[in-house]
Specification:
Layout: H1 35-45, E1 58-67, E2 85-94, E3 109-117, E4 120-127, H2 138-147, H3 158-167, H4 172-179, E5 193-194, E6 199-202, E7 208-217, H5 226-235, H6 239-249, E8 255-264, H7 265-270, E9 290-299, H8 304-309, E10 322-323, H9 328-344, H10 422-430, H11 433-446, H12 452-465, H13 467-477, H14 481-487, H15 491-498
Antiparallel strand pairs: 1-2, 1-9, 2-3, 3-4, 5-7, 6-7, 6-10, 7-8, 8-9
Helix pairs in contact: 2-3, 3-12, 4-10, 11-13, 12-13, 12-14
The structure holds protoporphyrin IX containing FE (HEM).
Length: about 500
């Protein structure tokens, strides 16, 4: 008689013995005929899939996004209309560590949210910092190589890390954030997160504005010191995952308020720096935060691998009313994620339930490995077709964008408005004295094993951001202030030349 609670093989046939291999005689060898044993071993050998190249360690939860304020004059997106409630899935991650890394490392945190909207999935794939280290796609794989393992030793290397960061001065603001008290959040619930890039919004009249997305924690900001984090990592490497899971299980649902900043196309043209440079902030005093709604996380996944490990987010997933921008870093990401997921999960990864849209999908893609739905049955497989099946929807076309300039490999540092130190200096000046102390201690501690030439490079950047920042870091790192001042006169290339050698 059928018993649903009993062991079967992968096609449902009952299994008689799951403990004792079939052997030729009581002390003889295993026989090939133990096909259940072969199936079990073969499946086990194929259970590991590639981890995400970065952001490998993560935790996720479902939730809902409720719009509380009216921003319809900026966007036609249904998910952003007043009163709209949309189901979501969010994954939090560290960046540099592998899948088994400890949660409480000093690192930025990724936060990716999938909004299952009635017009298709919209993914906000951001971090807990308002800007990023670098701004050119070319540098992205190198950033990851620098912060991940050294090819010779197989160990993480502060020397590689700081060498790379200080050779690209645009990293400076982000380094200041990562080395500050915010570099190790107390929990995912206690941090803000940001879309970082400039995106666009366009309304029913097809009028475009540029926009940034911010999600501010309603739980308040709380962070860990290096000492607290070291102790926690020694006891519980899954500390942040546990915190999120347990809060949701006890009904203490974490919430974030979503805001946007808006810049008109005309304002962007006369902005004092490139508004599409992800290493720059838009000052709140100039571009105020406008409240939009609340994201609440309220349901834990039933299965980690199925729902968290197989989740696939991409900034390329936008819906009508939300668009991209000329940010060249964003443009690179539009390719990278889907490509990575076709490798990591397969070409049909959007059929995995956590990734599936909740609205009807008619995309003409057919076949491919693991096509486990009906593959659109007998519907026409080509377009245009005379049956008029699945025609394009020109009414959702975003407004055209005029671009200017010749095609070239532009270096933003050649732009006279480019200032890599303004945001870091602004941040230093608003820090309270105790936070300045923490920043200096963390930086000097993190750089303890790094050679002096690289410390000088960083000291000069601190000095250019704010002379006090430079003086205090130089003192903490045991550097000569005269030398820092001398090097600060050299300009970017001169500084690099003067600090290339560890025996400078
Ligand atoms: C050109 C720059 C970048 C490239 C090429 C890039 C590429 C990637 C790739 C290939 C993955 C793994 C995707 C997967 O296997 O599912 C990933 C994950 C991720 N990236 Fe980026 N990335 C870039 C910049 C950024 C920036 C600026 C942010 C934040 C604003 C960001 C946030 C994330 C997050 C949160 C994840 C993990 C998503 C998840 O939880 O599944 N990345 N990135």
């Amino acid at each position: 008689m059928e018993n649903l609670e009993k062991l079967t093989n992968e096609v449902g046939a009952p299994i008689a013995d799951n403990e004792n291999a079939m052997t030729a005689g009581p002390r003889g060898p295993v026989v090939m005929q133990d096909v259940w044993l072969m199936e079990k071993m073969a499946h086990f050998n194929r259970e590991v899939i590639p981890e995400r190249r970065m952001h490998a360690k993560g935790w996720g939860a479902y939730g809902k996004f409720t719009v509380t304020h009216d921003i319809s004059k900026y966007t036609r997106a249904k998910v952003l209309q007043p009163g709209a409630v949309t189901e979501t899935f969010t994954r939090f991650s560290t960046v540099a560590g592998e899948r088994g890394a400890a949660d409480c490392e000093r690192d930025i945190r990724g936060v990716a949210t999938k909004f299952y909207t009635t017009e298709g999935n919209w993914d906000v794939v951001g971090n807990n910092t308002p800007t990023f280290f670098i701004r050119d796609v070319h540098n992205f794989s190198d950033l990851n190589r620098a912060v991940k393992r050294d090819p010779r030793t197989g160990r993480r290397s502060a020397q590689n890390n700081w060498d790379f960061w200080t050779l690209l001065p645009e990293c400076f603001h982000q380094i200041t954030v990562v080395m500050s008290d915010r570099g190790i959040p107390a929990s995912f619930r206690n941090m803000h997160f940001f879309g970082e890039h400039t995106f666009s919004l366009y309304n029913e009249k097809n009028e475009r504005v540029w926009c940034k997305f911010h999600f501010k924690t309603q739980q308040g900001i709380r962070n860990l010191s290096n000492e607290e984090a070291a102790e926690i990592n020694g006891m519980d490497r899954e500390y942040h995952g546990k915190d999120l899971y347990e809060a949701i299980e006890r009904g203490d649902f974490p919430k974030w308020t979503m805001y946007i900043q808006v810049m008109t196309e005309a304002q962007a043209k006369s902005h004092y720096e490139n508004p599409f440079d992800i290493t720059k902030i838009w000052r709140h005093a100039e571009y105020p935060l406008m409240e939009v709604g609340v994201l609440e996380l309220n349901r834990n996944p039933e299965n980690y691998f199925a729902e968290v490990e197989q989740a696939a987010f991409t900034p390329a997933h936008v819906v009508p009313g939300i668009g991209f921008s000329p940010d060249k870093f964003l443009q690179g990401r539009l390719f990278a994620y889907g490509d990575a997921q076709r490798y990591r999960l397969g070409v049909n990864h959007n059929l995995i339930p956590v990734n599936q849209a909740k609205c009807k999908v008619n995309e003409y893609h057919r076949d491919g490995a693991m096509r486990v739905d009906g593959n659109y049955g007998g519907a026409p497989a080509y377009t245009p077709n005379s049956a008029g099946v699945w025609t394009a929807q020109p009414e959702v076309m975003e407004p055209p964008l005029a671009l200017e300039g010749a095609m070239w490999h532009y270096d933003p540092k050649d732009d006279p408005t480019d200032d890599c130190f303004r945001a870091g200096g602004d941040l230093w000046r608003v820090l309270t004295e105790d936070k300045k102390k923490i920043l200096i201690q963390n930086t000097a501690g993190d750089m303890a094993s790094v050679t002096d030439n690289i410390k000088y490079r960083h000291a000069v950047h601190c000095y250019l951001a704010d002379p006090e920042y430079g003086r205090r870091f130089a003192a903490a790192a045991g550097l000569s202030m005269d030398k820092v001042e001398e090097l600060s006169q050299l300009g970017h290339q001169g500084l690099i030349q003067a600090t290339l050698s560890a025996t400078m």
